[in-house]
Specification:
It is built from six helices and nine strands. The protein is α/β, with parallel strands linked by helices. Strands 6-7-8-3-9 form a five-stranded parallel beta sheet, with helices on both faces. It has a four-stranded antiparallel beta sheet with strand order 2-1-4-5, with no helix packed on it. A hairpin with a 2-residue loop joins β1 and β2.
Length: about 200
């Protein structure tokens, strides 16, 4: 179980984003984080995946805190893939640090073998995002946090990627937390919604 326990986070003394926020996610769930703009959906995604530390409280996986070293069991796929990669490394080098991408994941996400010898600036935004999703899955995570991860794609590509992600998570018992501004996508993907504007503010 992924648990956000008593999370408090402030950007300044006068701007408290979360105060004692709590929620849990089972590995069988696909949870949509819902709230109006300004309620910190992206911030919470970064806290859940260990990219940002809360002022107090903790993120637990099966009762244990996120590791400070090694592979994290919670993997983040952000909205801007260029911010999720090292521009100095090739795609293959970054994959070597994560693990092997299963063939079905590469095919399902449309990742081409010829991309792996390239650097981030040599790929389009969509190609780089497909790579980032594949790299997250290569880490064999317990949970994936997807923050508007398909916003840059057309409707057909979005549908294909989400269909694959749903099948992958169900097959591998991987829990999914996601943010999307598309009500239709939320209705199709989510097994449950968490309304942040009703929690911990």
């Amino acid at each position: 179980m992924l648990e956000a326990k008593d999370i408090c986070f402030s950007y300044s003394p006068s701007y408290t984003l979360y105060s004692n926020l709590n929620f849990t996610l089972k590995s069988s769930e696909r949870v949509a984080l819902c709230a109006p703009s300004g309620f910190g959906k992206t911030t919470l995604c970064r806290i859940l995946s260990g990219y940002l530390n809360p002022d107090s409280g903790s993120i637990l996986v099966d009762g244990n805190p996120l590791p400070t070293r090694g592979m994290c069991p919670v993997q983040l796929v952000g909205q801007h893939p260029e911010n999720m990669v090292d521009p100095r490394q090739t795609m293959q080098r970054m994959l070597d640090e994560a693990g092997d991408v299963p063939r079905e994941a590469a095919e399902g996400l449309g990742v081409k073998p010829e991309w792996l010898g390239r650097h981030a600036h040599e790929l389009s935004g969509g190609e780089l995002q497909r790579f980032c999703i594949a790299r997250a899955l290569a880490c064999k995570p317990r949970y994936v946090v997807a923050d508007e991860c398909t916003a840059m794609f057309d409707a057909v590509s979005q549908a294909r990627i989400w269909r694959f992600l749903m099948q992958w998570c169900e097959k591998n018992e991987v829990g999914l937390v996601f943010v999307s501004h598309s009500p239709d996508l939320v209705e199709k993907v989510a097994t449950r919604k968490v309304h942040l504007d009703r929690l911990g503010h």
